[in-house]
Write a structure and sequence with these properties.
The complex is a heterotrimer. Chain A is α/β, with parallel strands linked by helices. Chain A has one domain: 3-Layer(aba) Sandwich (Rossmann fold). Helix content of chain A is 24%, strand content 25%. Chain A contains five helices and eleven strands. Chain A has a nine-stranded mixed β-sheet with strand order 2-1-3-4-11-10-9-6-7, with helices on both faces. Chain A has a two-stranded antiparallel ribbon with strand order 5-8. Chain B contains 25 helices and 28 strands. Among the domains of chain B are: 43 residues, no CATH class; 271 residues, 2-Layer Sandwich (60s Ribosomal Protein L30, Chain: A), CATH 3.30.1330; 172 residues, PurM-like C-terminal domain (Phosphoribosyl-aminoimidazole Synthetase, Chain A, domain 2), CATH 3.90.650. The relative contact order of chain B is 0.12. The two termini of chain B are 42 Å apart. In chain B, a hairpin with a 2-residue loop joins strand 2 and strand 3. Chain C is built from two helices and three strands; from the N terminus they run βαβαβ. In chain C, strands 2-1-3 form a three-stranded antiparallel β-sheet, with helices on one face. The chains are: A alpha/beta, B alpha+beta, C alpha+beta. Chains A and B meet through helix 1 and strand 6 of A and helix 8 and helix 10 of B.
Chain lengths: 228, 742, 82
């Protein structure tokens, strides 16, 4: 089993994802440059937070045209697991792998703090290690995290169980329906604004992100075994 | 806008250099003693910026020599991009602070952002990866629209740059006093981590080696920024206030990654590397040549330019951001080009190290400068300045100090908690990404920030501190207190203080009273640094912080970094368990001059400061640190603005606990600001051991309770305070002021 | 060469917090006559019209890059021949 962490020029949470998977979860992880064109040999792909290409136009807008993107789209279309946090989520929506868009926070400011979340759907490959409806806390750190989609899209997300994480309590950015993280219809692509990779060590005060990585690794393994 | 440049003769007659900050005496000295001819337009410009206070420290140098700058841990002291200190295991911590006061007063967002960008470049130019940023901000009172605008924009600029770079902004300080209204202070500090084997220096040597330019293109922005930083503000000179640069953190992120790959993986290609900061290309190139005693030839046509028709003068003096200068071993130029290309950046050979010691600039086929390198960097006329004790100091010594009288201690505490300097800064600090790179164990809002060193058991603690009020009342004692305060913040976190970086923010040094403040405060800081064995390894001086002739409080900022040898010994600043015992470490005196209490009750500060006993405080801190390392301390918080009463309340904020305290201090003394004190909690079973370790330094005053009440019985009364309500007041005070309409 | 200015704004139904904040600021200056402010951005683009029809170019770059149709819409003005 091998996991890819994609590195765009302005990625800055790539190390955090790598360390969470490698040092904490002991997974086999490799950085993959945005200049690469293939994801052959990888079983899951992680898109880190940051400012992919400076994000001067719109967060994640230019990353969609990078060399690696067609491979990521193909990877997702094959049903393999793709995960994006923060800027990674923005890129996934810009690339059309997830519905909706992320706009400027209602406060117009960058916000870095820990927020309360509800695990709305624990049946996805990314959340099986959480309890149904579990309340957890994860850090957020973004300026453009206000989820927006048209009404019909929101209804579909609700109906299909695609809303995986919801802000519980305060909605920090104005996201519609308190949405913090969603999957695609097939459930193999997850995007979320909070940073689970920042919450995997007791030393840093929070381990609520660990079940996400453990779920993913367990489910990748399950797929692998099923394929054999 | 290409200027028709004056001839050498016209320069002599029309004296444009006066406007660029060069005096007539200096100009004559250059003509008669250094060049033995008249300098041309470009050369005059080079002298003007290189001889500005910002680049040459000509006024402050005699005073800066007072600072200790060495001990067995210091690997690199002042004079390079940043100082370096050994932290064991072949690793080193690199840090420096820099002021960006003047640019921030003019264009606060970009001024603050480029301040952060500049200090980050200083760190990675040493071969270190930046791991954290801190700031020290001083503004006017939050009662004017302009001040609110400045605060919002400066905070946004700091966050905007650091957040995009992926360098966590982990701590800092923010104070508010009227004297900063027209001239806010924006000081930024960056801390980096490196392997000692990757250490780099800013040197250009080896004849034939290439001088390469990397990063953003050169434009006309920020020309004469260094000179501009060496002059004071007045409302009439609005037009002069145009020299501000715009930052591009994405470009800097690319530049950082490329430079780190070069320094850490291809050191054999590299001779030297330096940031193009103040005074841009001229300062970086001639400093690199000067440090190696080399000659340099630059072909300015090769400098990547953003605007057409730039003159040699403009190219050399531009302060465009996100640029670095490299000296590359001949033969490796193409390798370096390819490395930078891989990051989408251009690396261009713009010159060579040449025989001799001349600084040669060529542009459009002409030699536009041909002067000795050392004339720019070493021959500046050091100035001896007049000093005079200000009348306010003499008067304060003649008068009795103010003695407070409080009728309602609880009400006073509530009011003090809402003073902006003391109130929660969360609304600002939560706009900074304080966690990126997942090393932040303790972030903003504590005594010091603490970051673990990945792959080791070690952690680094860091803080910035500057209290202009004390320095204003007594520069020497205030200087000592600034160092003590920074050290106390580190000790409270469980860290051994290692070394210091500073930003010396003062008014116009030509005013003998201000120069006296500078001199005395440096003497005080130097003495404290020697006592604590924390050498000053880097720093910067910012003079002329005045607005319409009114100087700021003399405000030296101390940035200090400390080492925690074991992650287990990181001490939180908040109380941890019910029934833990509360101790006060250090004696409380009647220190009310310059206190928050004095400002609250009288609206101003005044009086004279009591001397601080450095040796006594150093011994106390050593004992406390030893007790911490033995696992005897559950939490510790240093006592600063607002004294014991504020510190006690703060240690409970964010927790579910309260405190039950009984002390022999008077109600007024609860707010005394005696330096070098701590409030410490200890598990009941460790009481005897802790007291034995602290000898007579710790006094038991009460315990941690579960009821969210602060109950204090003092010598002449008692009170109870609902801590949830108090915390609400403390948290809401600044958001409320920021929102209010004036 | 033709200069084109492409305006990108939020769709009508999308909440525009920047616009709201600026409206409030304008009101605090006493300009109650200002009823609404919408914030957008514009791109000044120089197009070589010898290569391709300018309208086609504008439509393509807007749809591919400049506009996120989940949120935004655009219009453009052909400024002048440069």
């Amino acid at each position: 089993m091998k996991i890819a962490v994609i590195v765009f020029p302005g990625s800055n949470c790539d190390v955090d994802l790598y360390e969470a998977l490698h040092t904490v979860c002991h997974a086999d992880v490799e950085y993959v440059s945005h200049k690469q064109e293939s994801l052959a040999g990888f079983d899951a792909v992680m898109l880190p937070g940051g400012f992919s290409y400076g994000d001067y136009l719109r967060s994640g807008a230019i990353a969609r045209f990078s060399n690696i993107m067609p491979a990521i789209i193909q990877f997702a279309n094959e049903g393999k697991f793709v995960f994006g946090t923060c800027n990674g989520f923005q890129i996934l929506t810009e690339a059309g792998l997830l519905p909706g868009a992320l706009k400027r926070n209602d406060s117009l400011k960058f916000i870095c703090k820990t927020v309360k979340l509800e695990v709305v759907n624990n049946q996805t490959a990314f959340t099986t290690h959480y309890q149904p409806g579990e309340h957890i806390e994860l850090p957020i750190a973004h300026a453009d995290g206000s989820f927006y989609a048209e009404k019909s899209v929101l209804e579909k997300l609700e109906k299909n169980g695609q809303i995986v994480f919801r802000y519980a309590g305060e909605n920090p950015n104005g996201s519609l329906n308190d949405i913090a993280g969603i999957t695609n219809e097939r459930g193999n692509v997850l995007g979320m604004m909070p940073h689970p990779e920042r919450a995997v060590e007791a030393l840093l005060g929070n381990e609520d992100g660990l079940p996400l990585f453990r779920s993913l690794l367990a489910n990748v393994k399950k797929e692998e075994e099923a394929a054999r | 806008m290409i200027a028709t440049e004056m001839s050498s003769q016209e320069i002599k007659e029309q004296k444009p250099y006066l406007e660029w900050g060069l005096s007539e005496k200096e100009y004559d000295y250059i003509c008669e003693k250094l060049l033995k001819r008249l300098p041309n337009y470009t050369e005059t410009g080079l002298f003007a910026v290189m001889w500005s206070e910002h680049c040459s420290y000509k006024k402050s140098k005699p005073v800066l020599r007072e600072f200790p700058s060495k001990n067995e841990r210091v690997l690199q002291g002042p004079g390079e991009g940043a100082g370096i200190v050994d932290i064991g295991d072949g690793q080193a911590v690199v840090f420096k602070a820099e002021s960006h006061n003047h640019p921030s007063a003019v264009e606060p967002y970009e001024g603050a952002a480029t301040g952060v960008g500049g200090i980050i470049r200083d760190i990675f130019s040493m071969g270190a990866r930046p791991i954290a940023a801190l700031d020290s901000l001083h503004f006017g009172e939050i009662n004017q629209a302009r001040t609110k605008y400045l605060i919002n924009e400066v905070v946004a600029g700091i966050g905007g740059y650091g957040n995009c770079m992926g360098i966590p902004t982990v701590g800092g300080e923010m104070t508010f006093d009227e004297c900063y209204t027209g001239n806010p202070l924006v000081n930024a500090m960056c801390v980096g981590l490196m392997e000692q084997k990757d250490m780099q220096v800013g040197r250009a040597q080896g004849i034939g080696n290439a001088v390469m330019y990397v990063g953003a293109k050169t434009g006309r922005d920020g020309i004469h920024g260094a000179t501009f930083a060496s002059a004071d503000f007045s409302d009439e000179k609005e037009t002069q206030r145009s020299a501000v640069q715009v930052g591009d953190p994405f470009m800097e992120k690319l530049l950082m990654e490329a430079c780190l790959e070069l320094t850490n993986k291809h050191a054999s290609w590299l001779v030297g590397i330096q940031d193009m900061g103040a005074a841009g290309l001229v300062s970086s190139s001639c400093e690199m040549a000067s440090k190696a005693g080399s000659g340099l030839e630059l072909i300015l046509d090769n400098v990547p330019q953003r605007e057409p028709e730039m003159s040699a003068y403009e190219i050399m003096l531009s302060e465009s951001q996100e640029r670095m200068l490299l000296c590359i071993r001949a033969g490796f130029e193409e390798n370096v080009k390819r490395l930078f290309e891989n990051y989408g950046l251009e690396a261009v050979v713009i010159g060579r190290v040449v025989t001799g010691q001349q600084y040669l600039l060529k542009h459009k086929g002409r030699t536009v400068a041909d002067i000795p390198v050392s004339s720019l960097t070493d021959d500046v006329l050091e100035e001896t300045s007049q000093e005079k004790v200000p009348e306010r100091i003499l008067e304060a010594q003649r008068n009795q100090n103010w003695a407070p009288q409080i009728s309602d201690v609880a009400d006073t505490l509530k009011k003090i908690l809402q003073q902006p300097t003391i109130a929660s800064k969360k609304m600002f600090t939560q706009t900074y990404d304080s966690q990126v790179r997942t090393n932040t164990v303790v972030g903003p809002g504590s005594d010091a920030a603490v970051l673990r060193v990945r792959g080791t058991k070690k952690a680094l603690a860091m803080t910035t501190d500057g209290n202009g009020r004390f320095v204003y009342l007594d520069p020497k004692i205030g200087g000592k207190m600034a160092v003590i305060e920074a050290a106390a913040n580190l000790i409270a976190s469980g860290a051994l203080p290692l070394a210091v970086t500073d930003c010396l923010n003062y008014g116009d040094p030509n005013d003998p009273e201000i120069y006296w403040e500078l001199h005395q405060s440096v003497l005080g800081m130097a003495e404290a640094c020697r006592t604590l064995d924390t050498p000053v390894i880097s720093g910067n001086v910012s003079l002329y912080n005045e607005n319409n002739g009114e100087a700021i409080y003399p405000t030296p900022m101390i940035g200090m970094v400390g080492l925690i040898n074991n992650l287990k010994n990181i001490i939180p600043s908040f109380v941890q368990h019910q029934d833990d015992l509360v101790f006060i470490v250090g004696r409380t005196r009647a220190d009310f001059a310059g206190s928050e209490l004095q400002k609250l009750l009288t609206g101003d500060i005044g009086g004279s400061l009591n001397e601080v006993n450095l040796k006594e405080i150093e011994l106390r801190m050593t004992k406390l640190l030893r007790a911490m390392e033995k696992g005897l301390v559950e939490s510790a918080h240093d006592l600063s603005e607002g004294g014991l009463a504020v510190a006690l309340a703060e240690t409970t904020f964010g927790t579910k606990y309260g405190l039950n305290i009984k002390t022999t201090l008077s109600g007024e003394e609860l707010f005394s600001e005696t330096a070098g004190r701590f409030v410490v909690t200890v598990a009941p079973e460790k009481k005897q051991q802790f007291l034995a370790e602290m000898e007579d330094e710790a006094v038991y005053v009460g315990q941690v309770t579960e009821d969210k009440q602060l109950k204090i019985a003092y010598r002449n009364g008692q009170f109870g305070l609902d801590l949830e309500a108090a915390e609400g007041l403390w948290e809401e005070a600044i958001p409320c002021l920021m929102k209010s309409k004036d | 060469m033709t200069n084109v200015r492409i305006f990108v704004t939020y769709k009508e139904s999308v909440f525009d917090p920047q616009g709201e904040t600026i409206t409030e600021a304008i009101h605090s200056l006493g300009h109650d006559e200002v009823k609404r402010v919408q914030v957008g951005k514009f791109f000044d683009v120089q197009v070589d019209t010898n290569q391709k029809d300018v309208k086609e170019t504008v439509a393509e770059i807007s749809e591919q890059l400049l506009v996120n149709f989940n949120l935004e819409t655009y219009r453009y003005e052909i400024m002048e021949e440069a």
